[in-house]
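Practice record 12: protein with adenosine-5'-triphosphate.
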Amino acid sequence: MKHKEEVSAGGIVYKKIDSKILWLITQHSQHKGWSFPKGLIGDENKGEPMEEAALREVQEEGGVKAKIVNKEPVKISYKYRFEDYLIDKNVYYFLMEYISGDPKDHDWEVAEARFLPQDELLQTLSFKTDKEAFQTILDKFEKG
Ligand code: ATP
Protein backbone atom coordinates (compact mmCIF):
# COMPACT_ATOMS: atom_id res chain seq x y z
CA MET A 1 0.00 0.00 0.00
CA LYS A 2 1.19 3.53 -0.81
CA HIS A 3 1.62 6.11 1.93
CA LYS A 4 0.84 9.79 2.01
CA GLU A 5 0.96 12.53 4.63
CA GLU A 6 -1.60 15.27 5.10
CA VAL A 7 -1.46 18.31 7.38
CA SER A 8 -4.56 20.29 8.27
CA ALA A 9 -5.28 23.23 10.54
CA GLY A 10 -8.45 24.33 12.25
CA GLY A 11 -10.00 26.03 15.22
CA ILE A 12 -11.71 25.17 18.48
CA VAL A 13 -13.81 28.30 18.76
CA TYR A 14 -15.63 29.59 21.84
CA LYS A 15 -18.28 32.23 22.13
CA LYS A 16 -19.19 33.97 25.40
CA ILE A 17 -22.84 34.83 25.93
CA ASP A 18 -23.16 36.52 29.33
CA SER A 19 -21.64 33.91 31.65
CA LYS A 20 -22.26 30.99 29.26
CA ILE A 21 -19.55 29.53 27.02
CA LEU A 22 -20.49 27.82 23.75
CA TRP A 23 -18.20 25.90 21.36
CA LEU A 24 -18.34 25.61 17.58
CA ILE A 25 -18.80 22.13 16.10
CA THR A 26 -19.26 20.99 12.49
CA GLN A 27 -20.63 17.90 10.79
CA HIS A 28 -18.62 16.71 7.76
CA SER A 29 -20.82 16.46 4.62
CA GLN A 30 -19.31 13.19 3.45
CA HIS A 31 -18.28 11.03 6.42
CA LYS A 32 -20.92 12.70 8.69
CA GLY A 33 -18.53 12.81 11.64
CA TRP A 34 -18.94 15.71 14.10
CA SER A 35 -15.66 17.51 14.56
CA PHE A 36 -14.13 20.99 14.50
CA PRO A 37 -13.72 23.13 11.37
CA LYS A 38 -10.39 22.27 9.71
CA GLY A 39 -8.79 21.69 6.34
CA LEU A 40 -5.60 21.13 4.42
CA ILE A 41 -2.98 23.84 4.80
CA GLY A 42 -2.17 25.55 1.51
CA ASP A 43 -4.65 23.59 -0.59
CA GLU A 44 -5.20 26.69 -2.73
CA ASN A 45 -2.24 28.84 -1.77
CA LYS A 46 1.16 27.16 -1.42
CA GLY A 47 3.19 28.39 1.54
CA GLU A 48 0.07 29.44 3.44
CA PRO A 49 0.91 29.93 7.16
CA MET A 50 -0.78 27.44 9.49
CA GLU A 51 -2.58 30.20 11.43
CA GLU A 52 -4.02 31.64 8.23
CA ALA A 53 -5.24 28.23 7.09
CA ALA A 54 -6.89 27.65 10.48
CA LEU A 55 -8.72 31.01 10.39
CA ARG A 56 -9.74 30.49 6.75
CA GLU A 57 -11.19 27.05 7.49
CA VAL A 58 -13.12 28.36 10.49
CA GLN A 59 -14.61 31.03 8.25
CA GLU A 60 -15.40 28.61 5.38
CA GLU A 61 -16.61 25.55 7.28
CA GLY A 62 -17.83 27.19 10.48
CA GLY A 63 -19.31 30.29 8.85
CA VAL A 64 -17.74 32.62 11.42
CA LYS A 65 -14.88 35.02 11.83
CA ALA A 66 -12.66 34.29 14.84
CA LYS A 67 -9.30 35.25 16.33
CA ILE A 68 -6.52 33.04 17.65
CA VAL A 69 -6.13 33.51 21.41
CA ASN A 70 -3.31 31.02 22.06
CA LYS A 71 -0.32 30.66 19.74
CA GLU A 72 0.36 27.01 20.60
CA PRO A 73 -1.92 24.67 18.63
CA VAL A 74 -3.00 21.24 19.88
CA LYS A 75 -1.91 18.44 17.55
CA ILE A 76 -3.90 15.28 16.83
CA SER A 77 -2.90 12.39 14.55
CA TYR A 78 -4.86 9.62 12.87
CA LYS A 79 -4.62 7.31 9.88
CA TYR A 80 -7.21 6.49 7.24
CA ARG A 81 -7.41 4.72 3.91
CA PHE A 82 -8.28 6.44 0.68
CA GLU A 83 -8.26 4.34 -2.51
CA ASP A 84 -4.88 2.55 -2.41
CA TYR A 85 -3.30 5.03 0.00
CA LEU A 86 -2.76 4.85 3.72
CA ILE A 87 -2.90 8.47 4.84
CA ASP A 88 -1.04 9.67 7.88
CA LYS A 89 -2.82 12.78 9.02
CA ASN A 90 -1.80 15.49 11.47
CA VAL A 91 -4.23 18.21 12.45
CA TYR A 92 -3.33 21.38 14.40
CA TYR A 93 -6.18 23.06 16.27
CA PHE A 94 -5.89 26.60 17.64
CA LEU A 95 -7.95 27.98 20.51
CA MET A 96 -10.01 30.82 19.01
CA GLU A 97 -12.56 33.36 20.17
CA TYR A 98 -15.62 34.10 18.06
CA ILE A 99 -15.78 37.59 16.55
CA SER A 100 -18.77 37.69 14.17
CA GLY A 101 -20.89 35.75 11.70
CA ASP A 102 -23.40 32.91 11.78
CA PRO A 103 -22.58 29.16 11.64
CA LYS A 104 -25.53 28.80 9.24
CA ASP A 105 -23.26 30.41 6.62
CA HIS A 106 -20.97 27.36 6.44
CA ASP A 107 -19.91 26.05 3.03
CA TRP A 108 -20.80 22.75 1.28
CA GLU A 109 -17.99 20.77 2.94
CA VAL A 110 -20.05 20.84 6.11
CA ALA A 111 -23.59 19.49 6.58
CA GLU A 112 -24.20 21.55 9.71
CA ALA A 113 -22.33 23.95 11.99
CA ARG A 114 -23.54 25.09 15.42
CA PHE A 115 -22.49 26.34 18.84
CA LEU A 116 -22.99 23.93 21.76
CA PRO A 117 -22.29 24.03 25.50
CA GLN A 118 -19.36 21.93 26.75
CA ASP A 119 -21.33 18.85 27.91
CA GLU A 120 -23.30 18.58 24.65
CA LEU A 121 -20.14 19.17 22.64
CA LEU A 122 -18.40 16.23 24.31
CA GLN A 123 -21.42 14.00 23.68
CA THR A 124 -21.61 15.04 20.02
CA LEU A 125 -17.94 14.87 18.94
CA SER A 126 -17.43 11.69 16.89
CA PHE A 127 -13.71 11.06 17.40
CA LYS A 128 -11.71 10.29 20.54
CA THR A 129 -8.81 12.34 19.15
CA ASP A 130 -11.03 15.44 19.03
CA LYS A 131 -12.37 14.87 22.56
CA GLU A 132 -8.77 14.72 23.82
CA ALA A 133 -7.85 17.86 21.86
CA PHE A 134 -10.85 19.62 23.41
CA GLN A 135 -9.74 18.71 26.96
CA THR A 136 -6.27 20.13 26.23
CA ILE A 137 -7.77 23.30 24.72
CA LEU A 138 -10.03 23.66 27.75
CA ASP A 139 -6.94 23.73 30.01
CA LYS A 140 -5.48 26.54 27.89
CA PHE A 141 -8.83 28.37 27.94
CA GLU A 142 -9.17 28.08 31.73
CA LYS A 143 -5.58 29.27 32.29
CA GLY A 144 -6.42 32.31 30.16
P1 ATP B 1 -9.85 18.06 5.84
O1 ATP B 1 -11.09 18.61 6.52
O2 ATP B 1 -8.64 18.12 6.73
O3 ATP B 1 -9.62 18.61 4.47
P2 ATP B 1 -11.03 15.61 4.81
O4 ATP B 1 -12.35 16.23 4.70
O5 ATP B 1 -10.32 15.25 3.56
O6 ATP B 1 -10.09 16.49 5.72
P3 ATP B 1 -11.07 13.94 7.21
O7 ATP B 1 -12.06 14.75 7.95
O8 ATP B 1 -9.67 13.93 7.72
O9 ATP B 1 -11.08 14.26 5.65
O10 ATP B 1 -11.62 12.45 7.16
C1 ATP B 1 -10.90 11.39 6.58
C2 ATP B 1 -11.19 10.10 7.34
O11 ATP B 1 -10.66 10.20 8.66
C3 ATP B 1 -12.69 9.78 7.49
O12 ATP B 1 -12.84 8.39 7.35
C4 ATP B 1 -13.01 10.19 8.92
O13 ATP B 1 -14.00 9.36 9.46
C5 ATP B 1 -11.67 10.02 9.64
N1 ATP B 1 -11.47 11.08 10.66
C6 ATP B 1 -11.78 12.40 10.53
N2 ATP B 1 -11.46 13.07 11.63
C7 ATP B 1 -10.91 12.18 12.49
C8 ATP B 1 -10.38 12.29 13.80
N3 ATP B 1 -10.36 13.45 14.47
N4 ATP B 1 -9.88 11.16 14.39
C9 ATP B 1 -9.91 9.97 13.74
N5 ATP B 1 -10.41 9.81 12.49
C10 ATP B 1 -10.91 10.90 11.87
